[in-house]
């Protein structure tokens, strides 16, 4: 299938640059006016139908870019009522059909594998804790818990680790210091471990957050609705 408009994978979701679509459709209206009018008039929802990102321009200043779902792209194309709009809509329909053919099997398998892996790692860490002094355990293992499990959780969603953690802060799961809010600790979705290290003669303690096996499944459930909308 010939690529009419570039489709990108953003966090496991197929998205299109609204600006690329606007350019393909040869819309005469100024881009910002065009996209904002349709968002308002048709009640498109941020983080469901589209995400917006502010980027720095090479020439200075900032610009706001919109990455939209294939469903939203189809609707915008149809609303143009032009030959190019029809061509774009048919293209997005074909892309959706191709995605549906491969997503269910690979996604389910990835989820089960990641959940099993997280549970195995938790058991391994318990054994390590029994066999190592406390300070050595935190120094050697705390970072691995956080980095490795958060990376797995991010991969499960098709996101990068930093993207996932930023999203969790926006959704009030993690505080600004990447420590979970108490309700999420109480639920068993996350654990916080102390890390002890020394700077000269001064002992310092920091906290490290990692995702439990239960948390891995919860993250998948929390964001699956958004994935299905795309």
Describe this structure in words.
It is built from 8 helices and 6 strands, in the order E-E-H-H-E-E-H-H-H-H-H-E-E-H. By secondary structure, the protein is α+β, with helices and mostly antiparallel strands. The protein folds into 2 domains: 96 residues, no CATH class; 126 residues, no CATH class. Strands 1-2-4-3 form a 4-stranded antiparallel sheet. Strand 5 and strand 6 form a beta hairpin. Helix 5 packs parallel to helix 8. The two termini are 20 Å apart. About 6% of the residues have low confidence.
List the SSEs and their pairings:
Elements: E1 7-10, E2 13-17, H1 18-25, H2 31-41, E3 50-56, E4 62-69, H3 70-80, H4 83-131, H5 134-157, H6 161-170, H7 182-186, E5 190-199, E6 202-211, H8 213-229
Antiparallel strand pairs: 1-2, 2-4, 3-4, 5-6
Helix pairs in contact: 3-4, 4-5, 4-8, 5-6, 5-8
TL;DR?
This protein has 230 residues and is α+β, with helices and mostly antiparallel strands. It contains 8 helices and 6 strands.
Taking all Cα atoms into account, the compactness measure Rg is 22 Å
**How does the overall form come out from the CA principal axes?**
elongated
Termini Cα gap: 20 Å
Mean pLDDT: 79
Q: How would a crystallographer describe the biggest sheet? A: 4 strands, antiparallel
Q: Number of helix segments?
A: 8
Structural class: alpha+beta
What series of H and E elements makes up the topology? Answer: EEHHEEHHHHHEEH
**Which regions are unreliable across 5 or more consecutive residues at pLDDT < 50?**
134-147
**Share of β-strand residues:** 15-25%
Strand order within the widest beta sheet: 1-2-4-3
Report the helical percentage.
Answer: 55-70%
| Domains (count) | 2
Tally the beta strands: 6
């Amino acid at each position: 299938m010939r690529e009419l408009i570039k489709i990108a994978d953003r966090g496991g979701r197929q998205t299109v640059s609204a600006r690329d679509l606007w350019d393909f459709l040869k819309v005469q209206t100024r881009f910002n006016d065009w996209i904002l009018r349709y968002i308002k008039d048709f009640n498109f929802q941020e983080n469901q139908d589209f995400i917006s990102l502010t980027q720095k321009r090479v020439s200075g200043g900032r610009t706001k870019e919109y990455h939209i779902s294939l469903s939203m792209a189809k609707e915008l194309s149809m609303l143009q009522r032009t030959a190019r709009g029809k061509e774009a809509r048919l293209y997005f329909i074909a892309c959706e059909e191709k995605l549906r053919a491969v997503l269910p099997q690979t996604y389910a398998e990835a989820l089960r594998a990641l959940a099993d892996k997280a549970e195995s790692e938790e058991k391994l860490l318990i054994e390590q804790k029994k066999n190592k002094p406390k300070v050595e355990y935190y120094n050697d293992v705390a970072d691995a818990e956080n980095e490795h499990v958060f990376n797995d959780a991010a991969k499960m969603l098709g996101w990068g680790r930093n993207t996932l953690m930023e999203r969790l802060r926006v959704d009030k799961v993690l505080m600004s210091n990447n420590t979970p809010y108490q309700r999420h600790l109480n639920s068993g979705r996350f654990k916080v471990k102390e890390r002890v290290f020394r700077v000269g003669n001064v002992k310092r303690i920091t906290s490290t957050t990692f995702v439990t096996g239960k948390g891995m499944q919860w993250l998948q459930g929390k964001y699956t609705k958004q994935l299905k909308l795309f």
